[in-house]
Amino acid sequence: MKKQLFDWMQKNEEIFSHMAKQIWDKPQLGYEETFASSLQQDFLKKEGFDIVTPIDDVQTAFYAQWGSGSPIIGFLGEFDALPGLSQQVSSLYSPVEEGAPGHGCGHNLLGTAGVEAVVALKEVMKLNNLQGTIRYYGCPAEELLSGKSYMARAGVFDDLDIVYTWHPFTFNMTANFSMQALTAIEFYFSGRTAHAAGAPHLGRSALDAVELTNVGANYLREHVPDGSRIHYQITNGGLAPNIVPDKASVYYYLRGANRDAVKDLERRLIKVAKGAAMMTETEVHWELKAGCYDTLPNLTLNEQMLAAWDDLPPLSFTEDELTFAKSLQASLDSSVLAGTAQQSFVPNEISKEVLVEQVLHFPQTFRQSMQGSSDLGDVSWIAPLGQVFTTCAPYGVQVHTWQATAAFGSSLGMKGMHYAAKAMAGAALNSLLDPEVIKKAKEEFVKLRAGKLYECGIPEEVKAPSTVLG
């Protein structure tokens, strides 16, 4: 059956490369991914999947289901782009449209690999009359760290037995580490306008309150747990220098090892903002924009994907692809390459390579934290989750850069995408055939949660952004 699966995937790669390139060609920001969402829904509907949408009023969120009964196996997809990262497939900085979005995190690949895996698995299940239910989840707005949180709040992951995902990167590796929990919160201050020269004593500056909040947050940094992150953006600083601003706002990302740590950061920052309002005689209110969990990597499922790769030829690249990769790598500042080697999750043995072809697996890094966050964490607290990375760009290229956008629209990205799709589909097939895999994954999941249950970090009263499909 595994041979049937991989043979089908090999023969049909071009279908999914075309889909990924279409999404790359039309990048859209979080909650606005109407093109990618419709494209994938239409394709999966033609493949015989039942489509469920919208989810929690998020119009671009959906899931596609095929089969019946247990087990229920999920595949996660994403398809949002990043602002300002438009770029052609070129090793020279060359935006398709200056200032426009681009797929600098490879979500054009990420979601498409999930579609590829679930359709391939359906073909083998039909051919061999295998029992089970498979689902592909089209998840919006990962870059806003809230799409999956809203979906989780709606309960669409609750009945999953296991779930698989992946991410484009610069090496092939099982993701045996956690990512940080995060809260995104925006503070809005209201004061009183006045002429900044003629009568400043009559004004109450909302901008002063924002700046005092930021000063307080910066002093707070010394007194938070190691590894915590506090970063902010002033989203409204007033209208003109000669007007005391009556409205100002600041947007914060708070990261920590887990939800409890982040909730405590949130509590303390709210006190800082209240203090700033008191000092400036302004008023403050705040809005929670995202509240995702740390990830719980499931070693059992990750090793199933590793075993699927053992049944495949190694990932390999052509001379033309290597030449393109070298030129992309050459566009990086030397400090970027040096800094890449210092990232805790990057193994030393690949630091001299351009395109990493071998598979890396380090079980001993299990639960070590990666300094980043994803709403993927919410799903990992609801069902056992397996994840891998694959080589879709040259070593040293960082996601969220124009070089990444270029790589993820090229054949480098497509090869890594197919390699990930095969890992997920192969592992899922093995889980269908061997119930002990799912049992073991669930036992590990229960142990990792240590009695804590998932509770969505976004309150019910906070409504999800909505975009009308068209």
Describe this structure in words.
This is Amidohydrolase. Residues 186-274 form the Peptidase M20 dimerisation domain. It comes from Lysinibacillus xylanilyticus. InterPro entries: Amidohydrolase, Aminobenzoyl-glu_utiliz_pB, Bact_exopeptidase_dim_dom, Peptidase_M20/M20A_hydrolases, Peptidase_M20_dimer. The protein is built from 14 helices and 13 strands. It is an alpha/beta fold and 470 residues long. The chain folds into two domains: 2-176 and 297-449, Aminopeptidase; 180-291, Alpha-Beta Plaits (2-Layer Sandwich). The strands form two sheets. Strands 1-2-4-3-5-13-6-11 form an eight-stranded mixed beta sheet, sandwiched between helices. Strands 7, 8, 9, 10 and 12 form a five-stranded mixed beta sheet that branches. The protein is globular, with a radius of gyration of 23 Å.
Sequence-ordered SSE layout with sheet pairings:
Blueprint: H1 2-11, H2 13-25, H3 34-46, E1 50-52, E2 62-68, E3 72-78, H4 107-128, E4 132-139, H5 147-153, E5 162-169, E6 172-174, E7 177-190, H6 206-220, E8 229-236, E9 247-256, H7 259-280, E10 283-292, H8 299-310, H9 319-330, H10 334-341, E11 359-360, E12 368-373, H11 376-380, E13 385-391, H12 402-408, H13 411-433, H14 435-449
Parallel strand pairs: 3-4, 3-5, 5-13, 6-11, 7-12
Antiparallel strand pairs: 1-2, 2-4, 6-13, 7-9, 7-10, 8-9
